[in-house]
């Protein structure tokens, strides 16, 4: 019996509470403990089972005209945001160059320059995030999944897509996400 427990301990099959119970238990209780540990092993899904359970990608029900309209809208907005990003990066470069010549600046001037630089970096990062979202929306149009909520699989209303073309969640799922 001790050899069986040591073998189970070394293989990691039995948890500590189960091992302690197995040492003290009568043969009937040992069988119950062994049954519990073996049923726990059976309950964990295998990789093949979890791969089968993956949901099918939902196809968009937008018409070809709607897809073309949203592609044009996203492309136009993407060009605008990229231009803003480029101007932010140019302004950031100018601020960095101006910051190198800080001879004679007092603490307030140095703080103001640092604030402006940090503000421009924040704006540039936000625009970069928007660019990534829009590029992802264009990929979703190409894949045929644009306009479908990634959370619930329902269609996102056209009014929401016109207001925020890179939306990936319907109004209900987005409000639920924001409450968390």
Summarize this, please?
The chain is mainly α and 180 residues long.
Description:
The chain has helices at residues 2-11, 16-24, 27-43, 47-52, 64-100, 107-143, 158-163, 171-179. The chain folds into 3 domains: 1-37, no CATH class; 67-146; 147-180, no CATH class. It has 180 residues and is an all-alpha fold.
Ordered list of secondary-structure elements with their pairings:
Blueprint: H1 2-11, H2 16-24, H3 27-43, H4 47-52, H5 64-100, H6 107-143, H7 158-163, H8 171-179
What is the residue-averaged pLDDT?
Answer: 76
Structurally, how many domains make up the residues?
A: 3
What is the rounded distance between the termini? Answer: 52 Å
Largest sheet: none
Kindly state the number of beta strands: 0
Number of helices: 8
Silhouette: elongated
**Fraction of residues in β-strands:** under 5%
What order do the SSEs take from the amino end to the carboxyl end, as H and E? Answer: HHHHHHHH
Residue runs with pLDDT of under 50 for 5 or more positions = 1-15, 37-55
Structural class, by secondary structure, is mainly alpha
- Estimate the helix proportion, in percent: over 70%
Radius of gyration over C-alpha positions, nearest whole angstrom: 29 Å
Task: State the main characteristics.
180 residues; 73% helix; disordered N terminus
């Amino acid at each position: 019996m001790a050899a069986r427990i040591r073998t189970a301990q070394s293989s990691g099959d039995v948890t500590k509470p189960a091992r302690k119970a197995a040492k003290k238990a009568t043969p009937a209780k040992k069988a119950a403990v062994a049954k519990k540990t073996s049923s726990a092993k059976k309950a964990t899904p295998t990789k093949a089972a979890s791969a089968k359970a993956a949901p099918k990608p939902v196809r968009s029900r937008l018409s070809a005209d709607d897809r073309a309209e949203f592609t044009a809208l996203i492309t136009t907005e993407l060009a605008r945001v990229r231009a803003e990003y480029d101007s932010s990066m140019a302004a950031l470069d100018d601020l960095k160059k101006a910051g190198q010549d800080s001879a004679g600046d007092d603490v307030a001037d140095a703080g103001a320059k640092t604030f402006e630089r940090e503000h421009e970096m924040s704006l540039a990062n936000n625009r970069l995030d928007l660019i990534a979202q829009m590029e992802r929306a264009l990929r979703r149009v190409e894949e045929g999944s644009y306009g479908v909520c990634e959370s619930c699989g329902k269609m996102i209303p056209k009014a929401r897509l016109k207001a925020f073309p890179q939306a990936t969640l319907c109004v209900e799922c987005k409000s639920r996400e924001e409450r968390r």
